[in-house]
Amino acid sequence: MTELITQLEAIVGSANVLNPEQVAQRAKHFWDPSPMVALALVRPVDTNEVSQVLKICSEHKQPVVTHGGVTGLVDGEKSNHKEIILSLERMQSIESIDPVNRTMTVQAGCVLQTVHEAATDAGLFYGLDLGARGSCTIGGNISTNAGGLSVLRYGMTREQILGLEVVLADGTILSSLNKMIKNNAGYDLKQLFIGSEGTLGVVTRAVLRLRPDTPTCNTAIVAFDNFDQVTATLDHITRTLNTNLNAFEILWNDFYHLSTNPDINGSTRAPLANDSFAYAIIEARGANEASDQQLFIQAMEAAIENALIADAVIAKSESERAEIWNIRENVDLTLRHQPLFIYDISLPINHMQTYLDEVRSTLQKDWPEVIVYAYGHLADNNLHVTIAPQPKNYINDPQQQPVKIQAFNDTQRVWYEQCNKTVFEPLAKLGGSISAEHGIGLLKKQYLKYSRTPEEIRVMQLLKKSLDPHNLLNPGKVC
Ligand SMILES: Cc1cc2nc3c(=O)[nH]c(=O)nc-3n(C[C@H](O)[C@H](O)[C@H](O)COP(=O)(O)OP(=O)(O)OC[C@H]3O[C@@H](n4cnc5c(N)ncnc54)[C@H](O)[C@@H]3O)c2cc1C
Q: What is the pTM of this model?
């Protein structure tokens, strides 16, 4: 083992190989301050060093877990004391921006927010955005095929990536830094690695697709009396705002109620009364100030006239817009329940309400008081469902961290299994997915069968075996 560490130090320098005590000084996860665990943490500075590190690890049959910003939500970044963490924290360069082809080439450790800022400075725009933007990295986004707030318009991470550089488990550098939108020369290998959660290779660089800037922004929050109004409004808004529609985020009543409760979060106002069936944040972005605003207001007025929405507030300033989005981003308020079970699922929009009703009524048989928070990027089929079986156990403290699954007691573990079954089983028959955007990691591995056939899982395992025959990259994760 000391030989391996010495060889790694020779590649990256001894200051960039942290020992277990140094690793333990880091928080395990964005939401988990307990100590990180690993045999060592290695910090290469470029693709060449990553390649050399993986070659040495391969020779020693040493398992490796790759880390970006450690904000993943399915334990994909989880490591044990026998594994080495490969952190891309020193690989944060923005290498170039090409305004003609609208691309940005970055190292994979670059933080998402840094990419946004650089794109804006160049008068351009990067189409992926999510709540963890200040910490998550482009490599992590690529490896999880992250979704987020603008998928409706720009697609998931897969749609933002033109080229990729990946290092395979044996240290081979696969450089596919394509800059073009069209390139059908053989298999599109980058697609294999996007969404593979660090199990097939380590992403080291990427060519990102940039879009024209959309300087105008019109935002509203609307209230609905029933789910039929939600789907009718989505249809109306999609037709009228067309390609300008940037977000359609739904918040069912329980979530809105909590997020705007002054006793819990004094700083977030409720722009609309909190007794509606559900709410949506609707946002359009474009390039023509006068006509974009007019179109947006007309679309809202038509929705009210046609009784598609019960009430609406349109943001008149950037601070009002921020207030509206704050309601959606107050997700951490739900996390103060003890215990809490968190899901990220997708299903056809027309089945969403009956699905939620079924889940709620099944859970109420065991927990009459259960709260099922539901919110998410409805227009791209995604629902975040958070279940608090015992809402009385709410700790109203901003420092309160969600209870880790690993720390569940025996009773809570049984409840968790029960909730998993209630949430996942109906998805199989509806053609839904147990993971809309967070991936599978370790947390959902045993439930993959609800969304993938045995044949699909076998092909996944075959791919893993051919690219990583010794099972060294993120072993045991995904499939
Ligand atoms: C507040 C909050 C909001 C979030 N909102 C969303 C959301 O709206 N949509 C969404 O999709 N996700 C969301 N997430 C989840 C998370 O931010 C994403 O999964 C993100 O893409 C992870 O990036 P990361 O750099 O933190 O990766 P990490 O957490 O470090 O790693 C995630 C996985 O990718 C692998 N990995 C990381 N970097 C590389 C690399 N360079 N090469 C190969 N494998 C790698 C890891 O091994 C691990 O399996 C949210 C998380 C938080 C905490």
A: 0.93
